[in-house]
Amino acid sequence: MGTPVRLVPVVTRVTVRVPAKINLCLGVGRVRPDGFHPLATVYQAVDLHDELRITAREDGELSVAVHTEFDLPEGMSVPEGPDNIAVRAAQLLRERLGDPDLGADIAIRKVIPVAGGMAGGSADAAAALVGCNELWGGGLGRADLEPLAAELGSDVPFLLHGGNAIGGGRGETVSPVLARGGYHWVFATSSEGLSTAAVYAEFDRLNPGAPEVPEVPDELINALRAGDAHALGRALSNDLTDASLSLRPELADTLEVGLEAGALGAVISGSGPTTAFLAASEEHALDLAMALASTGSAADVIQSRGPVSGARLV
Ligand SMILES: C[C@@](CO)(OP(=O)(O)O)[C@H](O)COP(=O)(O)OP(=O)(O)OC[C@H]1O[C@@H](n2ccc(N)nc2=O)[C@H](O)[C@@H]1O
Ligand SMILES: Nc1ncnc2c1ncn2[C@@H]1O[C@H](COP(=O)(O)OP(=O)(O)O)[C@@H](O)[C@H]1O
Questions:
Q1: Is 307 annotated as a binding residue?
Q2: N or C: which end of the chain has fewer CB within 10 A?
Q3: Residue 197 Cα, ligand 1 centroid: separation in angstroms?
Q4: 112 vs 50: CA distance, rounded Å
């Protein structure tokens, strides 16, 4: 009989990369009794990544430090404490694993715009689930992490998957879309964030007759199946557009500039205020980016590609 063996983590530090998302279509139905809206959306994960470096601790402490690569929208901050959604994700996983001594120092390098409609917080939550599961030897598979992800936020489960996927329910049920091709995007960010809850509330005010069951347009699925960027550009849609424009009218000008500069399609990303423009090629994306940057209305103009994978250890 020797001394009891204490299980120690196999690794002491992991790095996880996690993408942003856009909604190629966002069908929104009438608000449910629980306050959420039924959605019929197609998510695409795009090549704009946050990176989380997570170091194990054995004293049950969870800390977070955030380094942003850009100026935050006015009046906006990313919490560096228990309110950070990456910390909430780690806490939830720890409860699921049932060991209060599990701890971690989480360092987030933020590249995804904050409060921009690109799910940056949700992405960090998905990354923290994947990273801490590895670090703590949790042994949970993606299917086990999904319910935890859904508890953290409606679009967290998609960030575990990535690619192109249909989102149903309140956005948390995710099924992959058979799709072909890669797409070139240009994003125009804003110096002012938009609250998701405020945009949904404005949607309710503007749409008392919203359908109970929203639908994904066939044209969009067909465009993705065919890998046809021109058809995809024509099929982009977002039921939150009027609500976002009602709160931020100047976004209409940005959409117009991109379309006049030849974008195949333009759409507000999720609840906004980031706007997304589809280009036919890398060169076309550069032309669009220059046209958008020259107006000076965007905080930043970013070229990107999609689809890419979800949260991954690197
Ligand atoms: C609009 C979307 C489109 O993908 O993306 P973002 O623009 O935030 O990136 C999502 O629905 C955002 O999902 P997420 O940001 O995870 O929302 P949650 O944390 O679950 O909810 C925040 C708030 O948004 C509202 N909400 C969210 C989802 C939903 N289907 N109906 C809602 O009404 C509720 O008021 C809720 O309190
Ligand atoms: N790790 C995080 N990254 C970004 N925002 C976070 C994070 N944790 C909490 N938040 C809070 O979430 C809100 C922004 O959420 P975010 O996911 O960036 O926007 P959106 O829902 O528009 O995609 C802000 O109020 C921010 O303070």
A1: no
A2: N
A3: 7
A4: 6
